[in-house]
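Question:
Write out your own:
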Amino acid sequence: MKLVAFFHLKEVRWSLPDERLAAWRARFPSLEVASVEDEAALPAALADADVFVGWRLPPEHFGGARRLRWIHSASAGIEESLYPALLASAVVLTNSTGLHSVCIPEHIVGQMLVLARNFHEAVRLQARGEWNRFAVIAHQGGLRELHGSNLAILGAGPIGANLARMAAALGMRVRVMRRDARQPVAHAEAVVPPAELHALLGWADFVVLAVPLTDETRGLIGAAELRAMRSSAYLINVARGEVVDEAELVRCLRSGAIAGAALDVFSEEPLPPEHPLWSLTNALLTPHISGYTATYFDRMLALFEDNLGRFLAGQPLRNVVDKRRGYAPGGG
């Protein structure tokens, strides 16, 4: 049995710590572990591999991995891994969903507080050395409180479920949209199906997108959905940029059709410097960092190691992705 680990990204070079490799070899003595640091060496390593772990197995290398039985994605989002050859194969795909259930909800709460208290306008004034209380108080319709406001969460996976708990603790009224509305969500006053999306949008002061990117959610928020929102409402996207029609969102932000937006994900990343979102004073942008914490890599490896033990023992794996639907069931 052979495991291949490859954790390199274009932006960052990750490597398996030597102590983690030693621990795996000690715990699973029958397992050959190959940690690949250069993509050029990946095809040869994959030729006799049974298991792959990494951010993504490049599709051009998948065909040569003829013994492969299981891929574990180090990330929760797996849309880039669902290429035709993998979809058509019997290879099992698992992901790392659940590891963002604290950091991303906390990021969202931070975004809501910034928008509600106009911190983003105060920071702009600070950069100019300008004392202007009224400008902060009056920006985008004025300061508001999260307590008593309406929060709509689209998606009931670990992120959406934990956000519901945090928001309820702040005194917000929470409603959640999920595919099967018969399943309750703790701390939510109502759970609604996708067919009631427009009514939910019209009720909310804050709309949070926490859905996986699938054929069903691509373009979920378009012109009609943005028009269904209150002019005083905010849109927050921590899902994927493709869930929103960005061009229509820009038009709505410019016209004041909605009060503002907080975006951590974009249809094109990095966001081009000429993109109009950069210049909008009612748009709060972060560079796809809501899911990052100092402990993420270690926790992801611990999840994979638990699954590796299950795999070698012939037990059911955690976080198995439904490749047809494009997510790991048990969430949204």
